[in-house]
Amino acid sequence: MKILKFGGTCLGSEDTLQRVAKVVKDEKDQKIVVVSAASGVTNSLKDCTSRPRQEKEIEDFVLTTKLRNIDMLPKKDGAGRKEALDMIDAKVTKLERLLYGVNYTEELTGRTSDLILSFGERLSAIVVASRLAHENMNAVPMETDALGLITSEQHGNAVALLDRSEKNMGPTLEAAVKKDVVPVVTGFFGITESGHVTTVGRSGTDYTAAVVAYSTNANPIEIWKEVDGFMSADPKLVKEAYQIDRLSYDEAAELAYFGAQVLHARAVQPAKLKGIDIVIKNLYRPENPGTIIGASKLTRKEVIKSVSYLSNIATLKVYDTGAGYKSGFLADITGCLSKAGVNVLSAAMSQTCVAILIDDADIPIAKRAIKSMTGGAGESFEINPGVALVCTVGEGFGYTKGVAARVFKAVATKNINVDLISAGASMVAYHFTVDRKDLKNTINAIHHEFFGQTVPENSSNNPVS
Ligand code: ASP
Ligand code: MG
Q1: Does residue 220 line the site of ligand 1, with CB under 6 A?
Q2: N or C: which end of the chain has fewer CB within 10 A?
Q3: How far apart are the CA of 100 and the centre of ligand 1, in A?
Q4: Is there an atom of ligand 1 within 6 Å of 119 CB?
Q5: Structure pTM?
């Protein structure tokens, strides 16, 4: 059995929906479809609750949402159109009540927010199922709260409880597939043990698709989107960048975390636990084999596989002459930042300084948080914006000598100054920071060093025998 996951950009128009239906129909294996909200919908739901609204605004928003979904149904009266219209109507009515509730009570809890955000996926599951039914498939929309995708209580960033979810969802989904039903399952959300809807973080449908795969022992998970797969570098920065055929789980997780927008980093974990392959597929070029992510295949040829980056980073440095001796110094600082909602991307510590990488956007909050620490955190601190974090990824780091030296020599030759380096924390990646203005040169220098200046004729990897 396969999982076919379709992202928001696959669900936004008549043309893409037809392509989706063709992909599902052409798949001869047993299959379960998992869908995101159509692109823009989750943002619009979030925006609608972001400030108090006039009743008229809510009314208009709900009507627009409803019409947009109806517009995406197959035009002709056919199998199940009436049912789909009724289902959309019921969802939209509930959504409207929730939005009024938030507006009147002037209170938006994490719990209510998650419930409201889940409607994007609920609606797209109806739309996609109706499209598949139109193509003579026996498709049924199914919601992950009703199926019992159990998560932790952390609203907005919940984690799936895999074994509980497997017990709940596995039998139901497998029984449906056996009866030739194509389940169209909502991504992005689940439910707590106590019965409240939770979302798993933005772009989280890849992750829920992996949880569905885990629960049904499906293999592989195909992630359908509008790109071919992972690349050796961002083609916007490096013109010789090429598509990668194969990545290990850890390589994919590092790349996903550090900048590559191809896959949600968390999707790797459930897949890795059961050895399920994840395949990135392009809706516009279904014949392209895409990037396959699976058990590690070491290669001699490609020591590193890709260079990715995060361009909007700031370095926070807290100085204290005795930092290295003070127990809990690092924990105090990261704890205080995390309480303030600042995500710590990486941390390094010396005898006199703790250096922490944060998102540029978090600078003001981080400043306030550090200043407010009781007794002051350290003797002084500084924040350096305008930094980029470069991440070179490859299983080759673990078994080839001199890789780091090659990386840094390539960068040094371009006269680029490297600031913080983090190596060893991950077996498959080296991270370092450079000035943001040097980013393009840095990425190109590394790409040229390892992949040469020409596009490889065959980028496939030769497994070490
Ligand atoms: N619809 C959700 C979001 O936009 C989840 C997803 O797209 O995967 O974040
Ligand atoms: Mg989305």
Answers
A1: no
A2: C
A3: 23
A4: no
A5: 0.89
> Does residue 271 fall inside a structural domain?
no
* Span from the CA of 186 to the centroid of ligand 2 (angstroms): 12
| 202 CA: nearest ligand 1 atom | 9
| Residue 299 domain flag | no
Residue 256 lies in a domain: no
Contact of 8 with 43, CB cutoff 8 Å = no
> What's the order of all strands across the beta sheet hosting 418-422?
346-349, 353-359, 306-319, 380-393, 429-435, 418-422
Final residue before a domain boundary, out of 226, 243, 270: 226
Q: Are residues 87 and 216 in the same domain?
A: yes
Place of tokens 């193509």: 135
The confidence band for 374, taking pLDDT boundaries of 50, 70 and 90, is low
The Å distance, Cα 202 to ligand 1 centre, comes to 5
Residue nearest to atom 8 of ligand 1 (CA): 203
- Final residue of a domain: which of 226, 250, 282? 226
Residue 114 within a domain = yes
Helix (H, G, I), strand (E, B) or coil at 48: helix
pLDDT greater than 60 at residue 460: no
Segments forming the whole domain that contains residue 197:
2-226
Choose which residue among 36, 44, 65 to substitute to test ligand 1 binding: the one with the highest number of ligand atoms within 8 A of its C-beta.
36
What stretch of H or E contains 442? helix 439-451
Judge if the beta carbon of residue 203 lies within 6 A of ligand 1.
yes
Longest C-alpha distance within the chain, in Å?
75
Instruction: Quote the number of domains for the chain.
Output: 2
Residues 321 and 188 in one domain: no
| Cα 224 to ligand 1 centre (Å) | 14
**Whether 421 and 317 share a structural domain:** yes
Please tell me the residue having the least CA distance from ligand 1 atom 5.
Answer: 203
304: amino acid identity, one letter: I
Task: Say how many Å lie between the CA of residue 345 and the centre of ligand 1.
Answer: 22
- The answer on 148 and 48 residing in a single domain is yes
CATH of the domain at 389: 3.30.2130.10
Query: 216-266 pLDDT, tens per residue?
Result: 999 999 999 999 999 999 999 999 999 999 999 999 998 988 877 899 999
Neighbour tally for 342: CB within 10 Å: 24
Residue keyed to tokens 């809807």: 197
Phi, psi for residue 98 in degrees, rounded to 5: -65, -45
How does pLDDT run across 19-75, given as a tens digit for each residue? 999 999 999 999 999 999 999 999 999 999 999 999 999 999 999 999 999 999 988
State CA 88 to chain mean position distance.
Answer: 27
